[in-house]
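Field reference: "sequence" (input) and "structure" (output). Example, ATP synthase F1 subcomplex epsilon subunit:
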Amino acid sequence: MVPRDHLPITIHDHNMLLEVLTPERKLYAGEVYGVQLPGIDGSFEILDKHAPLIAALGNGKMKVLKDKSHSEFFTITGGFVEVLRNKATVLVEGAVAVEK
C-alpha cells in the first residue's frame, strides 16, 4: 500500500495547480485553468502542461484563470515563478487581491 502522502495529486482535465506565496503567507493555492503574469520583459501566460520554466516577475497585475469564464486578480510586487510537473509556484515579495 502506498503511503497517503505519496499518492499522486489528481487534477481535472486541462487544469494545473497554482500556489502563490509571499514571505508572510500563502495567498492562493488551488486548481486553475491558467495564470497570466507580469514578466520583467512583458506579460506571459502559463496553461495546463506548460514546459518547465523559471522566470523573473516584475511589478503588475496577476490574473488567475480559475476556469474559462472566472478569474481573480492580484497586484504583485516582483518575484519569480517556477513551473514543474503541471504546478506553477509563484514567489512574490508582496501581493494584494484586487476587486473587479
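The longest strand covers residues 71-84.
Residues 26 and 70 are 21 Å apart (CA to CA).
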